[in-house]
Amino acid sequence: MKTFILLISVCWYTVSIGQVPLVYETFDTGIPVDWVIINNDGNTPHPDVSEYSDAWIIVQDPDDVANFVVSSTSYFQPVDRADRWLIMPNATLGASGNFISWYGKSHDASFPDSYKVLLSTTGTAITDFTDTLKLVSNESPDWTYHELEIENFADENIHIAFVLTTFNGFKLYLDTINLRKEDPLFLEHPLKENNIKIYPNPTSDYLTIQGEDIKEICCHSADGKLMWQTTFPTKIDVTLLPKGVYFLSILSGGEFVRKRFIKK
What we know:
The chain has 264 residues and is mainly beta. The protein is built from 1 helix and 19 strands.
């Protein structure tokens, strides 16, 4: 009974400091109507990518046909540079713990795509985006997780834009864009780090948890939902978890240890 009470405490604590999602989009049902798309280059896609009838479209994930992602092309005829904007709806950041994360992927390693992530505090016109959050040069052909802390804009109302900028590339994919506030990565908390190790991280199939005197483990999603809890913390199958960021609350040696892992 004592062990059960401790486990509930670990799980409750994780939920109590869960982040607050502001914009969370997986594109499985299309591009939401409150997202703004701008074709600022006016170029004609090459016939091999004629499906790109708009600056950004929804396509099947090339690695998982059951998953849908948002995509843009920089393969034009004649050859030119892309300038294609995907602008998120406005959101008001919190006083602290403000983050944005997403997954990116180039279709072809021989023709990688580059893009920039910009921020506006005024509106959705191209000239409004005066702050650069990140420049991604030659995105990987494998799905890659990106995360940015945006504390400099705490409490402000913002828009964030993803802008494809490649000269003569091919296809860029984005997925699972997550803007949130009050993220526990930023907040102070009493969970104490020790010798607990988790690997591989990121992972797509199994997660190994290694450490001394581990009693219980809870796994929560980024929005605080309890995904599983276990008393056998050696090798855990995570293949059924959706892609994203997860938090482990681990009871070890009478102390709480908090770890984060990414399911890719």
